[in-house]
Specification:
Mean pLDDT: 81
Number of domains: 2
Structural class: alpha+beta
CATH topology of the largest domain: Alpha-Beta Plaits
Helix content: 40-55%
Distance between the termini: 43 Å
Strand content: 15-25%
Strand order of the largest sheet: 2-3-1-4
Low-confidence stretches: 181-192
Order of helices and strands: EHEEHHEHHHH
């Protein structure tokens, strides 16, 4: 193996309903490229955004370019024209790129500010504590304060954990994570 192989990733938008056609085409095209000098391997992938990729690797830039400029490769592109269109191409040398950070990925969502978390937590904790104090505690007045407090904590924690907090998190999601919602909105508009 050479010290500077080239990996080429070609992105495609596949017409909905023709995913199986593209998958078969991609693997058949890779089978044809395997007959070329310097071919090291390849694959057909789909990412989360429903974009398909054909990835192939050659021993050098020259062998990769020879395959891409060849008549058989152009014939494979013509065959795919009915169900897919190329949306991008990326060529990288060596293996270092697989270990570098990806700069084109969206950043992880920023955690909500402390005051927003406080507000959501108070919205979840206050109602059950109030109801417990108004409805249940009058009947437990003769109990040891330790037992009353333990019962309060057990009941409120269970209600908050399994009932209120999941619903409040869904309800306040756009307010807590606005950048994440903006990214999702862009994705929906782009794929529509």
């Amino acid at each position: 193996m050479t010290s500077n192989p080239v990996t080429v990733t070609v992105a495609y938008h596949v017409v909905p309903g023709h995913e199986a056609d593209f998958h078969s085409w991609g693997w058949a095209m890779l089978g044809a490229s395997a007959q070329q000098p310097g071919f090291l391997g390849g694959g057909v992938l789909v990412d989360e955004e429903a974009e398909w990729h054909v990835v192939y690797r050659f021993a050098s830039e020259g062998t990769a370019r020879a395959w891409e400029d060849s008549v058989p490769r152009k014939q494979w592109d013509i065959r795919a024209a009915g169900f897919a269109r190329q949306t991008g191409r990326r060529s990288v040398r060596g293996a270092k790129v697989w270990f570098d950070s990806q700069t084109d990925r969206p950043a992880a969502p920023v955690p909500p500010s402390k005051w927003k978390l406080w507000f959501v937590n108070m919205s979840a904790v206050f109602p059950p504590v109030l109801l417990f104090n108004l409805i249940v505690l009058p009947y437990l007045g003769g109990l040891n304060p330790f037992i009353r407090t333990l019962l309060l904590c057990l009941c409120v924690t269970a209600i908050v954990t399994w009932i209120l907090m999941p619903r409040l998190q869904r309800f306040f999601r756009k307010w807590l994570y606005p950048p994440l919602q903006a990214l999702r909105g862009r994705h929906k508009r782009r794929t529509a």
